[in-house]
Write a structure and sequence with these properties.
Elements lengths: L2 E4 L4 E3 L2 E2 L4 E4 L2 E3 L2 E2 L2 E4 L4 E7 L2 E4 L2 E13 L4 E13 L4 E3 L2 E3 L4
Parallel strand pairs: 1-4, 2-5, 3-6, 4-7, 5-8, 6-8, 7-9, 8-10, 9-10, 10-11, 11-12, 11-13
Length: about 100
């Protein structure tokens, strides 16, 4: 699986797409991110829509989020409407928005 890393000192204004790959956000993205797997690292933030099969958020996200498997770390700060099949959250995760968990299908 191809991997793309957005480093801590990098800000991207625009959409990020990886067909079948992985995107690790350590910096800041202002735009939508779509990939097979997305990880928003502790130092990372995304202002836009996240769309992937698997998403892990340790940092900040503002916008919307749609995936099959969502993991929220204790350090995550989310201001978004979430739609996922499964959700795992650590104690301390902060979520403001509508949460829709559909279960396995």
């Amino acid at each position: 699986m191809a991997s793309s890393i957005i480093e801590e000192d990098l800000t991207i204004e625009g959409d990020v797409r990886s067909s079948g790959g992985r995107v690790d956000v350590k910096g800041h993205v202002v735009g939508d991110v779509s990939a097979e797997t997305i990880t928003v690292q502790l130092s990372g933030s995304v202002d836009g829509a996240l769309s992937a099969k698997q998403i892990t958020v340790e940092g900040k996200h503002k916008g919307s989020l749609k995936c099959d498997d969502l993991k929220l770390a204790s350090t995550s700060h989310i201001q978004a409407d979430l739609a996922a099949k499964t959700l795992a959250t650590e104690s301390g995760a902060k979520v403001v928005g509508k949460v829709e968990i559909t279960g396995e299908q």
